[in-house]
Amino acid sequence: MKPFRNVIFCPTGFNDEEISKSISRKILKLGGCYSKDLTRQVNVLVIGKSKETNKYRFAVRHRHDIVFIDLGAIDVLYERWLAGDDIIGEQSGVVDPVTCALNTLRARYSAGPLDNFYIFIGRVDSFSKDRLEEICHTLKCYKCNSSHFVKDCKSRNDHKTVVFVTDSLQGARVEAAIEQQIPIVHYKWILDCQRRNAALEFDPYYLLPKIPENLTFDEIGLESCNCWENLSKPTLEIGHTTTGAATSSNLFQKFKVEGDRIWEKAMSKSDSNRVLNQGAAKLSPPPEVQGNDPNGDVSIFQGVTFNISHRFSQQQADILKRVIEQNEGVLQAESEYLVIPSDCPLDLLENDEISNRTLVTEFFIERCLNYKFLIKPPDSWSKPFLRNRNVTLIPSRTLLHDNDQPLQVAITGFHGVELLHLTKILKIIEPMGIKFVEYLNKKTDLLLINLPALPSIPRDHPLWNNQYRDLFTAQLEHGNNSSNQILRNSLKRKIQFVKQEHSIPVVTPAFLIDLLSRTSNSNSTRQTVCLNNISWCIICPRGSKESFGIELVLGKDSKDESRSTKASRKRTNSSSIGPTGRRTRTADKGNGDTIDLPAQHALLPT
Questions:
Q1: pLDDT tens, residue by residue, 268-303
Q2: What CATH number belongs to 391-601?
Q3: Where is this region: Disordered (predicted)?
């Protein structure tokens, strides 16, 4: 079910018709209803550039049940929904989905009540000025100054509402504020804005030369709102901003706790439950179904010999040793497997380190523990993927949708150990010129997709039959390929987004592994890998082979090339973007031969 089904949103303060249409489309896709009129049925008021509207004033005064959010929150919610996040979550004791949705919006996405206010705090005798300043910042004020009054602050901040807060009309700062025609209000205005979780009008809080003697503190500003009785308890303080960077959970950390469990389970016989945390990857969550090893009682590494590289920290090496030995593996100098850190470049290894042994990273140990059997021979996830750090990746200009950014890559269809390993790889190679982004949007340049999540692609297709097919073997034979409904919905929405709104290449992680295999110093200093290769390409916009190339620059040339590329991007006209036609191009067949197909005949169903 869509997260905001039966939730009614109403706009206010929008002065751009295109933005209004964009927001309404996203609300409808999220399952909500969009009403331009503020009716009794409206649940959420979406604030545009200004709160100085009749709708906002009326809702603040009369509608305690309405949630106030800004338009940035809609963008964040939509991107999180596209990414497959459960943006509502379960709430104890709450059954009604509309109530759950409103609780989430109120607690996490409320618009900052004072986000457009520049607040000066003057003399306050009966309340802590530090506490008032803290509340102002909690309510997301633009600025708050309690130490001095800034001359000409109003003219310098003509797009902000400047207000002076005090409980006395005495003093030079008050006189200066009056001279600049800045409102002087009682500090209770701040407290009531916090309680109402909205910006209240100044009028009931203006300080007057003569205040009636019988006016109590509670009566100050009482008429600013007609629904105080419904707000007897203060609303939740806003602890979340609606910018994408703050609300979106970092995918590199999203599964940290669950990923640690597999190490802890493997080390349950030990006194220490620490995990590899310096250079080595975190472990993945256990698979959703048990492995199908018929000899489940047999230890995974029984009789297998390992040597742990000295390039691990002592703590990491100790943990690996305990895990291997507890699964009846044998540690010895002359061994079948040498385990090296996943972020250690192969070009740094000495010849005597790698002779006559199978090289694996800690990913191999993790994958064997996850799938509960020895993966032999090691798959492409388990083998060292990093050859050389001194590499710069230079995408074709037509690939980039933001010339100020490196190649921006999103992912879909991954879960469990593959998700953690892929994000680890992307993080390690980020300095080369690939930026992992959690959300798929119109600035994304490339989408990585998990092949087993696409049952529509036949098994005799070249995507399943190439040197990187072992990336998917363990998932097919020993894992749970169906994933869960949220991930399936996310994958479907992302594919629709690429096909209908943002035409970019969609490839499997085989592309990354092949790209990294070419980064050894023994190779040519310049190579090009094309995205539209049939071994990994699922969808590709129409265009020449060169339009989807990524050049690898190795060695001493890479830094100079990186600087010149950045300078060139700045000179490039912003209109130089990738092809966005609705026709879809199948993958490059070996030597650059291509076949153009209509979008509906692409590999993935529309």
A1: 544 433 334 443 434 333 333 333 344 444 689 999
A2: 3.40.50.10190
A3: 559-606
